[in-house]
Amino acid sequence: MQKGIYNEWLTEKRFGICRLSLLSLYREPVIGSGITSQLLFGETYIVAAVSEDRLWFFVNGHAHAGSGWMPASQHDEISEQVFDQFNQTPFRVTTSVSIIRQKGAHVHLLPGSNIYASSGELFDWKTTMDFKGESRPFEEKTGRQGVVDIAKNFLHTPYLSGGRSLFGLYEASLFHLVFKIGGYIIPNYLSSLIAHGQEIQPEAIQMGDLIVFGNEIGIPNRLALYLGDGEMMAVNGKVSISRFDPEKRRQGMSDKYSVLYAKNLFLR
């Protein structure tokens, strides 16, 4: 991004952490400019720029959580040392809608939120928070069946451009969130996600692999998750399941899209 009339690029980095259930990031420091991504409770970010009126921050979410403008009033400042501690400390990721009590107030957590299981005073979830819900250690990577089971929890979630929660998802964010809950870090945007992992032929696809579809001129622009047993999950107005035959090149999405290849994201 180049410097424009909306922002002032920072010479020294600032750091923050999301303490809200959901924090939306926008294309421009203007209300209604469109959502680029969203941050979930416990996710950290780096502040890269400030709007001229000081009312908006441009932030880059850690671990491919996405980038965009957030209202300065929603910023929660932490030091670089604390930022590093959070990102190097083992944590749990919520697998269900959960509730914690933090500083005397209840906060609802959406699936994919971070709970830091350390002894630090900010997020000592075992001793300073009442936690009600389900979570799993991020460090314990689930297998292919686990990823499919996680994905099915998002069935019927509506489409939302830039959305990253049960309230709305688009294709790349759906799979980014599913794999995050399963213990993997993958990109949150289509352009980066299609370059991630190992490319394989559709005939060699396994449960948990991504299917990459292309348009009439072969440009990758749609994704689906192979669930096994001839089924795939995709976002068509909402998260839904449909049939998939690896031998057929045109299927599933519509006649406008054809299967280009598949992606194995489990290799490290």
UniProtKB/TrEMBL annotation:
The keyword Protease applies. SUPFAM superfamilies: Cysteine proteinases. PROSITE patterns: NLPC_P60 (PS51935). The keyword Hydrolase applies. Coiled coil: none annotated. It comes from the Bacteria. Residues 141-268 form the NlpC/P60 domain. Keywords: Hydrolase, Protease, Thiol protease. Belongs to the peptidase C40 family. This is NlpC/P60 family protein. The lineage of its organism: Bacteria, Pseudomonadati, Bacteroidota, Cytophagia, Cytophagales.
